[in-house]
Amino acid sequence: MAVPAYLYQVLAAVLFCIGVMGVLFRRNILVIFMCVELMLNAANLSLIAFARALGNVDGQVVVFFALAVAAAEVSVGLAIIIDLFRKKGTVDVEQVSLLKG
Amino acid sequence: MLQLFWLIPLLPLFGFLLNGLGLKWMPRKAAGWLACGAVGAAFAIGVGALIELIGLPLADRSITHVLFPWIMAGDFHVNVAFMWDPLSAVMTLIVTGVGFLIHVYSLGYMAHDEGFKRYFAYLNLFTFAMLVLVLADNFLLLFVGWEGVGLCSYLLIGFWYTKKSAADAGKKAFIVNRIGDFGVLVAMMLTFWTLGTLTFPEVFHRAQTLLSPGTAIPTAIALLFFLGATGKSAQIPLYVWLPDAMEGPTPVSALIHAATMVTAGVYLFVRASGMFVLAPDALAIVAVVGAVTAIFAATIGLVQTDIKRVLAYSTVSQLGYMFLAVGAGAFVAAIFHLLTHAFFKALLFLGSGSVIEACHHEQDIRKMGGLGAKLPITKTTFIIGSLALAGVPIFAGFFSKDEILYSVFTSQLGGLGKVLWILGAAAALLTAFYITRLVALTFYGKPRDKHIYDHAHESPKVMTVPLVILAILSTVGGFLGLPLAEKANVMHNWLGPWVGGHGAEAPSGAEGAVLHATSHSAGLEVALMAISVALAIIGIWAAWRLYIKDLPRVQELSRKFAGAYRVLWNKYYVDEIYNALFVRPIVDGSRVLWRAFDVGVIDWAVNGTGRVLRGTASYLRPIQNGLAGSYAAAILLGAILIMGYVLLGGWR
Fold it and tell me: Residue A99: closest CA among chain B residues belongs to which residue?
């Protein structure tokens, strides 16, 4: 049974919204970070679905690039988080507000 | 030697650099002798170069040495170049010769001063600047020296800068001189504007063809230069700084404020006489100012009680004579008097320094008296200097002052010249009077302060030897310009062809010989001479009678003429008048501007800008709360807004 193309987009949108809600409302920086990844992959899913529906590889190519960049971003992001934990002993973003104006 | 004359100014510069900038480890004695040696070597080169210059034929007696081109902008070329001709040679020998003696004297006078090395560094710097002034071959380089000597004058007047009166006197000298310098600058601009060059020979050459005599331009140039000369050479109205300049060390007063720097204005006028003869009206003004200054300062000198101030007013008065000579067109006589004055006034100042040193820095002649017995050398040399100043025959001042008075009497000024002659002769009488009074009160009579008298002592050799040499020069120096003997008049034969209208081109033989040769009348000259000798003797006799024989009478007289005495004692209230007319309005006006404009407008605007920014920021600051979540929400909100805008078709 073929799944209609729009359902992929709905799924992508739902995942994206979950990610946004997580970024906005969670306080654990690790969780926020995972939610950012969720948003990223929601976008990837949307791209791949469109590429398949339109019979065009452009979207897939973009996703490969996005994955590569995301891998780098994750390593940097995790390093920052670990360092933050070492320095501050917490992963709660509300405890870290040094740049308050 | 002739090819090396450009080294003359560089030697003192070298001494200044060594003493002033480096060699901290050098012992004091070596530093002092280094400074003296630099000036002495410059003098030696000067003598050598002068001898070779005498050997040259008349037309070749001007040598220019270009060190390097300085300014080249379009048509405007100025070289750093020195010129060796009879006039600059005479000036150089005065500056280095008298300067050397004063350097040596300073070794003794300043021996125990903390700023010994600083003093000699300044003194060398001054000598350098003065030599640049007299050797420069263009107006601009002359102006460099002109400003340089002004700076050194400031530094040396305020040498004891912890003393407020000295620091104030230095400032006064500098500021008053700046007023004059403004005139020199404008005059140089006018010169370049009309003649297109600032190099002396070219200026005089072009002035003959491009400027018509007696018109506005040469008159304006001459008067503006004269404004500068009144500042530097202490003439009315800008003389007020010179009496105050006596706050400096006494050898400085001798070198800068009597023998050399203050004569810079006279030198400028003689150097540029080729241009100034085209402005007879301006020269008449110069003569009048000079004569009035001569008698004005002499009257103030009558009642002063500070030994150095009497000499300071005497210097102002003698400089007035020089300008009187310049104004009468007797340029040679002006330089001749400059030369003799350098000898006897340096002698008098150094003598007064010896007295001051002997009295442990007491300068009030009312507390001296009878010092002659304790200071035999100082007394003898001081009296020789006084006789030269008073114009007693065979002493140097007699010949030069007499030549000036004679030139004025017979000058192209006509009737005005006769009036100025009367002023000059009257000033000569006063001169004889005040200098005799000074000698009498200092060296003769009964000691008025026992403590000072008991502790007085003759100065060391290093100070008395320069005194003796200067005394000899003050005696024989006058024979350089013998009257009534044109062949033997060294000054005229040497300088005559180079000044006045003849400075422009190389003179051709006897054509440019003596400016006044045609109007020479031996009988008249002898008669005038007799009058001035009589005046000098009357002045000396009157002062002698009053101040030695009949001191109580002086009190009586000063009570009788209390009004006049008070005016003279207060120096005609000139300082007070200048204060009320210029200083107070400027200070008060500045205060108004400070309160109204500086605080009210500028500060208000600057502070206002800061306040506005801070106020605005206090509303914006809460947005940046440091919480990552709120930033993320802001990003999301922005993204939604932009997407909504795009999707709703706002972006096409």
Answer: B626
